[in-house]
Amino acid sequence: MRAWILYDWANSAFATTIMAAVMPIFYAGVAASGLPEGRGTSYWGFTQTTAAILIAMISPLLGAIADHSGEKKKYLRAFSLLGAVACFGMAFIGEGDWLLASVLVVAGMLGFGAGNTFYDALLNDVSSPAMRESVSARGFAMGYLGGGVLLAVNLGMILGYKQLGFADSTGASQVSFAMVGVWWIVFSLPLFRRVQEKRREAGGYADRLRAGMRRLGETMRGIKRYPELYKFMIAYWFFFDGINTIIVMATSYGTDIGLEQTDLITALLLTQVIGFPAAWLFGRMADRFGSKRMLFGALWTYVVIVVLGYYMTNALHFYALAVLVGLVQGGAQSTSRAIYSRLIPPGRTAEYNGFLSFTSRFFSFGGPLAFGLVGILTGSSRAALLAIALFFFIGIALLAIVNLEKGWREAETGY
Fold first, then answer.
1. Fewest C-beta in 10 Å: which of 66, 78, 120, 311?
2. Phi/psi zone of residue 58: left (φ > 0), alpha (ψ -120 to 50 degrees), beta?
3. 275 near 329, Cβ under 8 Å?
4. How confident is the model at residue 253 (pLDDT cuts 50, 70, 90)?
């Protein structure tokens, strides 16, 4: 269980340094230099869209194959390596290399997103149903801590580049990308050594592919036998898209409205510091007050964040919003993961997590795409941000009609 939790520490470095903090600023200021004003932010949004579509295309089939063969760790290892290698490649991005940067970010996000399909599925192998809320929350808490530690190191290196012998902050940023790859690989090792899963006789790769296709077809035909899982999945599509869009577009938005790089990265580091205890506490409160009730609270907080972000004008405002995000982001994600794990029928964890990844990632291009398009059409990043509130409103309305107790019974009995 501890080894599983530690993987969140490992791959969250990618989420903080690459997805949320350093790379978006580096992309806009270095990789996209020479492009018309605001175009870099839109291209960054389209990069997220491309990654989401690719993850959506491969995750459900890989999940079905992994369930059939009992090789979730094998696929997690492969995608972790892909993500780490992409981080090493980012160390060579220079001025005007926006296309190379987009390709490497897409590869890294493919490793991160598809890998998480199998990581989430392993939750059922390391904990009982009654413990999943707290174990999932501990994983996210550890992720906030690990991602925050490396982000703090990277921030110190970028801000103090002269004292460390770098010619400029660009060189320090490039080294920070490579450090994410090393961090990801090293701290993934305990999971690959310690976590056990039930192996199955799977045959050759052709047999696995046929079995995976068959199981995927069964999933798509049979998911309506679990109506509460089906309803929760649809709700998840919308609010996941809203959360993901805020994560990947926050620093680009801050750059557009004139905030300094130091303020942007410091605010995101603040999110990590607060997110560590907040995610752990959120899991405890979900055990006491109910996971659905706590998830509602987190999603309404996001609505407040989006509205306040529309009026944001200075770094202090950005810090305040970072605090709010830190209080609910890990909790919303960990509680969603735990709820979904209890709605899945036994023995099909990677398959259903892959299906959720397929559907949510396929849908999740909507948020960054909407942000990019609204920004181009209106010429305003503020209007683009406000449009994201719609995703939370729809997600909240759909979550309200999900009956979790009924869904748990459906998962256990099949009806």
1. 311
2. alpha
3. yes
4. confident
